[in-house]
Every structure is written in structure tokens, then in C-alpha cells.
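Reopening this one. Same input as before:
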Amino acid sequence: MSTTKAQFLAQLKADRADFEMALRDLYDEQMTAPGVEGNWSVKDVLAHITFWEVQALSWLQAGLSGRAPGPGLETTPDETNRLNLQNYHENKDRPLYDVIDEFHATFPRILALVEALPDDQLLVPAHFAWAGGKSLADHLRSETVEHYAEHRTALYVWRDSIRYR
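Same output, byte for byte:
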């Protein structure tokens, strides 16, 4: 767990780089082939991660500007599954490079938000009443670091399975 903004930023960058290593050297056909996680392709996983990063950004930006972050900051498993399915259907036919471009464009926005926050706003649990007793870093960690780890494992397992076909 990070105790300074610098540590949190370093963790974000390192975990994102680790996730992107799992994408290295994949061909377009591999990026769009189903089977990485259920019927999801690598492209679908990227759209999924991007969706949750964008959600986290919108919640945090709303909260930081004094507005209610809106529904979704704390979702039930059923709501999360519904949003994931909706996002899958909205993105499954998008061109691969549109999804990749959005995936790469979102992370710098997260870094910029974190860099702009004072340490106390980022790291102190319950600094904001709307954050549900968590720190902003905790909310961001769940949509970035923890999310990357979850899907990175599946990507490596899938990569190993296609290597030996």
C-alpha cells in the first residue's frame, strides 16, 4: 500500500507497464480472437479496462468538483456484471485500433489527475464523504493496479495456450 503520492504513481506506472508487457508482440488477429476470458478477446479486455478507468476518472472528477460522483462508485456484483456486459456489447464491433488508442489515451489522464492532487486528498481515507470511507488512491487502485493484475494473469495463460497450438 502506498504511503506517498510518489509511491502510488510509481506503483501505477509499474503495474501498467507489467500489464502492457502481456500485450507485447501480439498480432492483430490474436488481439481480436475470442477466448482470452470466456468469449472476450484481448481487444475486449482492453475496452473493459478502459471503461472502468474512464468511470473512475468521471467519479473522481465529479467528486473533486463538488458534485456527487453518481451511481457506480460502489457497485454490487450484479451491477458490475450488467455494466461489463453492456460495455462488451457497445465495444465488440469497434475497430481494434480505436480501442487501443482509447486504452493508451486514458492512462495519462489518470496520471495527470493523481499528479494534480495533494497527498492528503489522494491518500487519506474518508477525506471526502462521498468516497465511502476509502481514499481516492483506493478507488483508483481497484480500477487500475488490481484490475491490471486480474486481467494480466488471464492474458499470460491465454498467450501460453496459443503458443502451443
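So the earlier flakiness isn't reproducible anymore. For the record, The two ends are 39 Å apart (CA to CA).
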